[in-house]
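Translate structure to sequence.
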């Protein structure tokens, strides 16, 4: 795998693992709870919706856009997600993890230097990868805040950056 692609993968996996870690700490009733149940405009989404949407966006940008997989994403359905427990969410995250790993492992330098067609626009491949990181980080923050609100203001266990940094030597 290219070092650059490995660096993107490391960030994406770190963010996705943080989402998974929060999901594992919450009771099932917290997953579908929204801080403002009266809002119907997705201004405040449940943790289940946010996790599903983050995985859906990763699938879209890395699977469909970068990896040229067939179009399967149903973005609107992501916002209707209701779950009974974490199992389906963990499976969704695992499925997108495997897909992302496979695609990033096969990227060539030409792929990274290239562009991809997204609807009526052309975007650099690197932009699409960075967008996944940016988008996932945004929704991880939403999940952290929603979990904190669910827990009555109690902070969510979130390891600091240096606790998550993999020990490695520069090659």
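Result:
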């Amino acid at each position: 795998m290219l070092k650059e692609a490995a660096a993107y993968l490391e960030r994406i996996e770190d963010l996705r693992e943080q989402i998974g870690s929060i999901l594992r700490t919450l009771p099932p009733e917290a997953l579908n709870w929204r801080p403002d149940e009266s809002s119907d405009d997705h201004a405040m989404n449940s943790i289940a919706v946010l996790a599903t949407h983050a995985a859906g966006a990763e699938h879209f940008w890395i699977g469909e856009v970068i990896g040229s997989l067939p179009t399967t994403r149903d973005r609107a359905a992501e916002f209707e997600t209701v779950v009974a427990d974490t199992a389906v969410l963990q499976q969704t995250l695992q499925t997108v993890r495997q897909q992302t790993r496979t695609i990033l492992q096969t990227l060539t330098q030409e792929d990274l230097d290239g562009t991809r067609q997204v609807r009526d626009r052309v975007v650099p491949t690197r932009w699409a990868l960075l967008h996944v990181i940016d988008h996932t980080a945004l929704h991880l923050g939403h999940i952290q805040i929603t979990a904190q609100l669910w827990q009555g203001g109690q902070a969510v266990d979130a390891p600091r950056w240096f606790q998550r940094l993999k020990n490695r030597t520069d090659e």
